[in-house]
Amino acid sequence: MLEQPIYALTDPVRLRELVAGHGWATLVSATGRGGPVVSHLPVIPDPEPDEGGDGGGGDLTIVGHLARADAELHELGAHDVVVIVEGPCGYVSPSSYRAGPYVPTWNFVVAHLHGRPTVLEGAAGYRVLERTVEHFEADRPEPWRLDTVADYAREIAPYTTAFRLRPSRVVGKHKLSQDKPYEVARRVVEALEDGGPHGNPALAAAMRRVLVPGD
Fold first, then answer.
1. pLDDT at position 32, please?
2. pLDDT confidence of residue 98
3. What is the mean pLDDT of each run of 10 residues along the chain (215 residues)?
4. Residue 55 pLDDT
5. Which of 18, 36, 68, 102 is the most buried (most CB within 10 A)?
6. Beta-strand runs (E) in the chain
């Protein structure tokens, strides 16, 4: 991913919020099998971060799990990987700018977490499953818990592989019209909020968070 200072997303709090709010991630591994291995899986910020290490990942440590068969294809734990977390994104029409000349573009928020995952077995792996359920159930009036079906859950848990990733490198990017004059960017936000063919309230909210008059 092209790193451009104007779009850099480096705040660990914002990055952790991105992971917490957009937990369906992409895992990419380079193995000796003839090409990249790609899987899609849930990840969450580590609710029990290890205070050790060199601080390379800091608060951006994540945990996740995938099918054991997929983990074997990734040779999980034997190679460095990239976990890609995508936030709000969407098409921006030049008609939104009411200025120009401009061309269409795509605004987005994304983070690439690089590093070598640690495979978690036994009780530690099962705890990741429990914490993942708790994370995604947290906003429900009556959160469902994995121990509701404890016997069944423990029966199928061995068919999954849990892991922890403390990133050695994080590349975050939020391309949200920071290169445009404030008034032009504000028109994009308004167009995204209007609910038309390219309405995108989540992307509009992300833009409002970073656009400041005078930028």
1. 76
2. 82
3. 91 95 96 87 88 53 97 95 98 88 93 98 97 96 96 97 97 96 93 89 95 60
4. 40
5. 18
6. 24-30, 36-45, 62-67, 81-92, 105-115, 118-120, 160-165, 169-175
Q: What is the pLDDT of residue 26?
A: 98
Taking the C-alpha atoms of residue 73 and residue 29, their distance in angstroms, rounded to an integer, is: 9
CB atoms within 10 A of CB 119: 14
How confident is the model at residue 211, as a pLDDT? 87
What is the Cα Rg of the chain in Å? 20
Is the distance from CB of 19 to CB of 46 less than 8 angstroms? no
CA–CA distance, 143 with 141 (Å, rounded to integer): 6
Tokens of 90: 């969407």
Write down the pLDDT at residue 77. 96
In angstroms, the Cα distances linking 209 to 92, 191, 205 are 17, 16, 6
Residue (of 158, 167, 193) closest to 45 by Cα position: 167
Give pLDDT, residue 51.
52
Phi, psi (deg, nearest 5) at residue 201: -60, -35
Strands (E), 23-125: 24-30, 36-45, 62-67, 81-92, 105-115, 118-120
For the sheet containing 160-165, what is the strand order? Answer: 118-120, 160-165, 62-67, 36-45, 24-30, 81-92, 105-115, 169-175
